[in-house]
Amino acid sequence: MTVIHVFPGQGAHRVGMGKELFASYPHLVRQADAVLGYSIDELCLRGPESRLSDTRYTQCAMYTVGALAYIDRIRTTGELPDYVAGHSLGEYVALFAAGAFDFVTGVELVAKRAALMADVGPGAMAAVLGITADQVRAVLARDGGPQVDIANLNAPEQTVVSGPPEDIAAAVSLLKAETRGAVVPLKVSGAFHAWPMAPAAKEFERFLAGYRFAPLRIPVVSNATARLYEDAEIEALLVRQLTSPVRWTESVGFLLDQPEPEFHELGPGQVLTGLISEIRAKRPVPAGMAS
Predict the structure, then answer these.
(1) Which is the catalytic residue, given 53, 88, 189, 222?
(2) Per residue in 47-79, pLDDT tens?
(3) Does the annotation count 193 as an active-site position?
(4) In which element (H, E) is residue 283 found?
(5) Which domains does the chain have, with CATH numbers?
(6) Could you tell me which residue ranges the Malonyl-CoA:ACP transacylase (MAT) domain spans (predicted)?
(7) For a surface tag, which of 9, 98, 109, 176 has the fewest beta carbons within 10 Å of its beta carbon?
(8) Confidence of residue 179 (pLDDT cuts 50, 70, 90)
(9) Which residue in 193, 222, 244, 251 is the catalytic one?
(10) Is 88 a catalytic residue?
């Protein structure tokens, strides 16, 4: 059996998350508060929803809850995972779990990342359901099409596009008119994992130059490459992640190829568990196994 821990990102957050964890690890909560300058447990437990949904705060909250959930899982079970992976912001929890940096350093990195992404300005994202990423690309690649990027490859028939608000609005109209897919605008304020994040990525690269990362003790699957991190490329891949799509379908495919994979989602909700089930169900049947 291969034990795999996965960590969700923005979108899985909710007011009330982390209640039991904050009570169990007050010393770590105080450390996060000292870095952030506000009470992380008050934010998570009381909101308001509007503030918790602001990416400046969402990312810090999701990292803290995810990291505490991992610590609690290891403390409770005594069992380390064989692999870890996170979706978008969740990748920072995966890297913390793998020993790339300590808890407080993770808070510092995520707080800076969140601030830089928020400072980029307005953006939008939309999920396209029921058609493949190639079909989405074919529609959007036409001359004069909207200036949007593929941001998340979440499942074989779930793709997220990202870009300036006016371009996403045009993409939504185009995709609704010319495909059978359902198109759902997402409740975000930024064009994450897309070309508008290039200025944030450049500034984040300068920021990361002040840090040194420890060798990974557990294999981590990268969002940007859908393969395992090498110790020497942590900084580069964290920068690249800001403007690159989250290749979740391929990442999960790699993990499903491991012997008897057993997934555990740590953090609020079961969003990733649902995506993993969808990816598993739509995988091609290996040759010789079809009835």
Answers:
(1) 88
(2) 999 999 999 999 999 999 999 999 999 999 999
(3) yes
(4) none
(5) 2-120+194-281 (3.40.366.10), 124-185 (3.30.70.250)
(6) 6-291
(7) 176
(8) confident
(9) 193
(10) yes
